[in-house]
Design goal:
By secondary structure, the protein is mostly beta strands. It has one helix and 14 strands; from the N terminus they run ββββββββββββββα. 5% of the residues lie in helices and 46% in strands. The strands form two sheets. Strands 3, 4, 5, 6, 7, 8, 9, 10, 11, 12, 13 and 14 form a twelve-stranded parallel β-sheet that branches. A two-stranded antiparallel sheet has the order 1-2. This is Pentapeptide repeat-containing protein.
Length: 228
C-alpha cells in the first residue's frame, strides 16, 4: 500500500495494483443498487454527470470530461481520478476516503459538506472553487495545485498540507486551520488571515504574511504620501 508524504502529512493511496484485483471496464458509474466496485471508467465525454446515493469502490476514472457534474451523497473508497475535467462540479453531502485526484481540472467547483480522509490532489487546477464546510478528518494533501481565488468557507483543514501551490487571492473565511501546514508556498496574496490561527509556516514566510496583511488592511504607506 503506497503513501504520498509531505513533511509530517502522509496520505495512504488507493491499492489498485494488488495481486488478485482485476478492474473491469464499465460504461457508466451508475451501478446496480448504487454500487460500482473494481472498475475502470475512462475517456468519456459527457454533457452531464449526475450521481446520487452511489458508492464507488476500488476503481480508476481517467479522461472523463463533463460540461456539468452533480454529485450528491456519493461515497468514494480507494479510487483514482486522472486527467479528468470536472469544471463547474457541484459536490455535496459526501465522503471521500483514500482517493487521488491527479492532473484534473476542477475549476469553479463547489464542494459542500464533503468529508475527506486520506485524499491527495496533485497537479490539479482548482481556481475559483469553493470549499464550504469541507472537513478533513484524515490526511489531506494539495501538491503543485493551482488554487487562485479559491475560497475555504467554514472548512476544517487541521490535518491538511499544501506544497508548491498557487494560492494567489485564495481566501480562508472562518473554519478550523490549526496545524494546517502551509510551508513551501507563497503566502503573500492570501486573504482571510484572521482565520489562519496556529497554522504551520517557515520563518522565511513571515514577510509574505506581512505583505498579505498589509494588502488586506488596505494600508497606506507614509512614504507614498504627498505631504506638501
Amino acid at each position: 500500500m503506497g503513501t504520498r508524504t509531505i513533511r509530517r502529512t502522509s496520505v495512504t493511496l488507493p491499492s489498485l495494483d494488488e495481486p488478485g484485483l482485476y478492474l473491469s471496464h464499465v460504461t457508466s458509474l451508475e451501478g446496480g443498487r448504487g454500487r460500482v466496485a473494481e472498475f475502470h471508467y475512462g475517456d468519456a465525454d459527457l454533457r452531464a454527470l449526475d450521481l446520487a446515493d452511489t458508492h464507488l469502490i476500488d476503481g480508476r476514472v481517467s479522461g472523463l470530461k463533463t460540461q456539468r457534474a452533480r454529485l450528491e451523497k456519493l461515497r468514494v473508497d480507494s479510487v483514482e481520478f486522472t486527467g479528468c475535467d470536472l469544471s463547474s462540479l457541484r459536490w455535496t453531502d459526501s465522503k471521500v476516503t483514500r482517493a487521488v485526484f491527479r492532473d484534473c481540472k476542477l475549476m469553479g467547483a463547489m464542494l459542500e459538506d464533503v468529508t475527506l480522509d486520506d485524499v491527495l490532489f496533485e497537479n490539479c487546477k482548482l481556481d475559483y472553487s469553493t470549499f464550504t464546510r469541507v472537513r478533513a478528518v484524515g490526511p489531506l494533501i494539495f501538491s503543485q495545485c493551482s488554487l487562485r481565488e479559491t475560497t475555504f468557507d467554514a472548512a476544517d483543514l487541521s490535518t491538511a498540507a499544501f506544497e508548491g501551490c498557487d494560492l494567489r487571492l485564495a481566501e480562508f473565511d472562518g473554519g478550523t486551520y490549526r496545524h494546517l501546514d502551509l510551508r513551501g508556498n507563497d503566502l503573500s496574496q492570501l486573504r482571510g488571515l484572521a482565520s489562519l490561527k496556529q497554522v504551520i509556516i517557515d520563518h522565511g514566510q513571515t514577510p509574505q504574511l506581512a505583505e498579505a496583511l498589509a494588502a488586506e488592511l488596505d494600508v497606506t504607506y507614509g512614504e507614498d504620501l504627498d505631504d506638501k
